[in-house]
UniProtKB/TrEMBL annotation:
InterPro entries (UniProt xref): AB_hydrolase_fold, FSH-like_dom
Name of protein: Serine hydrolase domain-containing protein
Upper taxonomic lineage: Eukaryota, Viridiplantae, Streptophyta, Embryophyta, Tracheophyta
Domain annotation Serine hydrolase: ranges: 10-201
Name of one Pfam family that matches: FSH1
Organism whose genome encodes this protein: Coffea arabica
C-alpha cells in the first residue's frame, strides 16, 4: 500500500554487521540501544557475512557465536581477499530479500555500505538491484585499497546519509574523512567509542527529522511510480 493508504511504506535497509560478528549480534546491538520510536520507522533486514570468522572475535564472551566476516585484509587495510565474492554475496542478499532503499552498516559493514553506492554508480557492483538511496553509517571509514577507493569515491556520495561519530572511536578521523565525500550528510556525534550508540534528547530529535525525510522520499517515490503505472495501463 502506498503513501495514500493507512500504512505508509517504511524505508527498507539491508544491515551489514561488523568484522567477526553476525547479523544477529548487530540486531541485538541496534534493538537494545535504539528506542522504539526510531525502530518503528525503519524496516531492517539483518544478514550474516559470507565467510566464517578466520580468527578471534573481539565480541567473544559478550555475544554468542557463530561469527562472520565480509572479506579479509592485511594489517595496513590496503589489500583485500575475497572482496569480489563479498560484493556478489551482498547483491544476492538484496535480490533475495529486497528491494531495498538503503544500507545500514557498522564498522566493516559501514565501510562497505558507504563504498557500495559509488561502486554501483561505476557499474562494478549491485548491477541487478535498484539504486541505493539512503545510508546509515555507524563507525565508518573509507577503503584504503586504491583500486576500490578510486571507484567508490570518484564522485561525491549522493545518498541521503547519517553518520554516527564516536568521540573515543579509533576510526573517528577516518569516519570524518568519509563524511567529506558525502553530499549534505547528517552527522551525529556521541561520547562513546567504536559501538552502536544510544541517543540523547538532541540526537534523537535529529534522527527523527532524518527519518521523516526518508519516509517522505520513499512514499513520494512510491506514489509517483503508482501514478506512472496507472497512466501506462
Amino acid at each position: 500500500m502506498g503513501s495514500e493508504g493507512c500504512n505508509p511504506m517504511k524505508p527498507r535497509f539491508l544491515c551489514l554487521h561488523g568484522f567477526r560478528t553476525s547479523g544477529e549480534i548487530l540486531r541485538k546491538q541496534v534493538t537494545t540501544k535504539w528506542p522504539q520510536s526510531v525502530l518503528d520507522k525503519l524496516d531492517l533486514v539483518y544478514v550474516d557475512a559470507p565467510f566464517p570468522c578466520q580468527g578471534k572475535s573481539e565480541v567473544e564472551g559478550i555475544f554468542d557465536p557463530p561469527y562472520y566476516e565480509w572479506f579479509q585484509f592485511n594489517k595496513e587495510f590496503t589489500e583485500h581477499q575475497n572482496f569480489d565474492e563479498c560484493l556478489a554475496y551482498i547483491e544476492d542478499c538484496m535480490v533475495k530479500h529486497g528491494p531495498f532503499d538503503g544500507l545500514l552498516g557498522f564498522s566493516q559493514g559501514a565501510i562497505l555500505s558507504a563504498a557500495l553506492p559509488g561502486l554501483q554508480e561505476k557499474g562494478v557492483a549491485l548491477t541487478k538491484v535498484p539504486k541505493i538511496k539512503f545510508l546509515i553509517i555507524v563507525g565508518g571509514a573509507k577503503f584504503r585499497n586504491q583500486s576500490v577507493a578510486e571507484k567508490a569515491y570518484a564522485s561525491p556520495i549522493q545518498c541521503t546519509s547519517v553518520h554516527f561519530i564516536g568521540e573515543q572511536d579509533f576510526l573517528k578521523p577516518y569516519g570524518t574523512e568519509l563524511i567529506e565525500s558525502c553530499v549534505d550528510p547528517l552527522v551525529i556525534h556521541h561520547p562513546k567509542g567504536h559501538t552502536i550508540p544510544r541517543f540523547d534528547d538532541k540526537t534523537l530529535e535529529e534522527m527523527h527529522r532524518f527519518l521523516d525525510r526518508l519516509h517522505k522520499e520513499v512514499n513520494t517515490s512510491y506514489t509517483e511510480q503508482e501514478v506512472s503505472s496507472q497512466k501506462a495501463s
